[in-house]
Design brief:
Shape: globular
Family: Belongs to the IspF family.
Radius of gyration: 15 Å
CATH class: Alpha Beta
Largest sheet: 5 strands, mixed
Structural class: alpha+beta
Strand order of the largest sheet: 4-1-7-5-6
Bound molecules: ligand L45E5XJ5, 2C-methyl-D-erythritol 2,4-cyclodiphosphate
InterPro entries: MECDP_synthase, MECDP_synthase_CS, MECDP_synthase_sf
Cofactor: a divalent metal cation
Keywords: Isoprene biosynthesis, Lyase, Metal-binding
Catalytic activity: 4-CDP-2-C-methyl-D-erythritol 2-phosphate = 2-C-methyl-D-erythritol 2,4-cyclic diphosphate + CMP
Oligomer: single chain
Length: 157
């Protein structure tokens, strides 16, 4: 059994798609990044890599590599999960939190759980996604960016 945690932050900018948890969210701002900047899938990827002592996504997919310009973070997550399954492990369960003042994530949470569980080939009951504001405090509270946290438990396959 292995445990891992991940944390990621991306800045908000105008005229960019907002993609979180592999789901496109209707909002006037999106997240800035080298990839599609899916802050939740990045935190989950880092948690999985942490659980198998494989560093972080920056090590596997450097943001200096043009190959990852505009990359689909869903594909990066699947590559990361292959490292996990190649070691004879699989996801036991995943819990994560999105920290965003706006927009409201609640209408998208079920779609995110469906998408993430599909990418990791587990049941929706193994994937929990939560959202919170930071009560208008800090960079998330000022709507300068969005953060995500993830914790995974891996079990023997
Ligand atoms: N971006 C967000 C933030 C929060 N929620 C939901 O609202 C509830 C209350 O949030 P507080 O930060 O005021 O505690 C929270 O539990 C979430 O269900 C959301 O959907 N999107
Ligand atoms: C995902 C990668 C891919 O180049 O780029 P970004 O979208 O900038 O995301 P970040 O979480 O800052 O770092 C990881 C990068 O490797």
């Amino acid at each position: 059994m292995r445990i891992g945690q991940g944390f990621d932050v991306h800045a908000l900018e105008r005229d960019t798609d907002l993609i979180i948890g592999g789901v496109k969210i209707d909002y006037e701002f999106g997240l800035k990044g080298h990839s599609d900047a899916d802050v939740l899938l990045h935190a989950i990827s880092d948690a999985l890599l942490g659980a198998v002592a494989e560093g972080d996504i920056g090590k596997h997919f450097p943001d200096t590599d043009p190959a990852y310009k505009g990359a689909d973070s869903a594909k990066l997550l699947q590559e990361v999960y292959k490292l996990v399954t190649d070691k004879g492990l699989k996801l036991g369960n995943l819990d994560c939190t999105i920290i965003a003042e706006k927009p409201k994530m609640a209408p998208y949470i079920q779609d995110m759980r469906t998408r993430i569980s599909g990418l990791l080939e587990v049941t929706i009951g193994q994937v929990n996604v939560k959202a919170t504001t930071s009560e208008k405090l800090g960079f998330t509270g000022r709507k300068e960016g969005i953060a995500s946290l993830a914790t995974v438990l891996l079990i023997e396959d």
